[in-house]
# Entry
Amino acid sequence: MGDAASLEVHASEVVLRLGVALTRRLGVQLGSLAVVWRDAAPLFVKASQVVLRHGPALSRRGLVPLGRQLVVLRNALALLVHDGQIALGAAVALLGSTAVPACGLCEVVLHAATVVVQTADAVLRLGVAASGQREPVGQRLGVVASLVGRTAQLEVALRRQYEPGRHEPADDPSHRVRSHSLENFTTGCRRRVCYKRGMLRGCQSEVAPIRGMLLKHARDAFRSQQVIEGQWRGLRYAAPPRWDRAVEEYDRFVELLQGFGIEIQFLPADPGAGLDSIYIRDAVVLCEKGAILCNMGKLARRAEPKALEAALRERGSPVLGAIRGEGRLEGGDVVWLDSRTLAVGRGYRTNDGGIAQLREMLGDVVDELLVVPLPHHRGPNDVFHLMSIISPLDTDLALVHSPLMPVPFREALLRRGIGLLEVPEQEFASMGCNVLTVAPRCCVALGGNPRTRALLEGAGVEVHDYDGAEISVKGTGGPTCLTRPLSRGLV
# Structure
């Protein structure tokens, strides 16, 4: 834990220096930000001590796995340091440019402050779980509320700094840019503090830290053993899932995801959707402009996007459009290689018409859309998507199955400097290549693939596996299929 404390001190120094530089160069009063970061440091150290003190005892009693606590805490601290470094780098670049409005830089600072709030909340929750009654929940909520309040005070101070007519003439073009940007970033700040209100921030990434996620619980997708018995053969499941066991497995899967500090929302049960609705990724594609509802290649799944649309609109997420007519598109065929580059698999579930509609709706949010021809493999009735053969792990690393990967696509990955980890041949069929990256080089994987796990860990990737005999194996859907990340952080 000494290393974690050192990292926190480093992050504090980074942002304190940033605050000093901004105050001196821009006249922006950022003392409140320095206080937020200064006060956050001892909270993290205290949480570390709580976990370290109580974790071993709880672990011996079989209540709380110590290893998982320490990994979550370490990831939270690393994320905080990472965002601090990004903020400092942005400050250096922006301070040297007269073309960038001052409030554009303030947005970077506000983002750093909200990261403090979110990460402090996650780590303090971890401390509460580890310490039982020693850290009252009310006290934790009070601390987080205080941090949120300080961030809000910073927003007010910045708004006053650039209030129309206060420091600049109202008709000054530079003022108009600043005022517009200020409105954007203050609105964005409020949503980042409580991103579940509908933002799709950071969704053009497969590897940035997941903040918010949409799931459909096995309880609501499978509904009952009777429903399972009536559908599994038609959907070509390997065997009928056991409803009670599937619910238990899914509960543990959710607990694993929540351990990363992910805010989870659940899609409700829908009589018009079948068992496959548990694999929620396939029904929608996300971009910065909004959600694009898919038109499923599998006839039995055609009702799923409509149910998802209602849930997205209810949470306030923008819906950009839907794939219509003869166009076909499934989310499992869509992979972000970076925030401006999208790869789309052209196979039995996604066709040319669907890709053309997707390209038109994306518009200027992408610089390049790579169409990847997929192999026949086991035919049109098989569950095969682009994500069957590639799972990004970081901006420069991916888990792949090259024997089924088109040569031009593989070469394109290598040209981009993406290192390729080859999943062992004997573990491809057991979904070894399908892993969910919850943060750079930290992933969730289906258990039962020891060689793939060793491969990943040997490359410095953290692996957290889950038991998916009922929710994954029988329906052939791995962790990426089971999840739809809605918002991600910086990477």
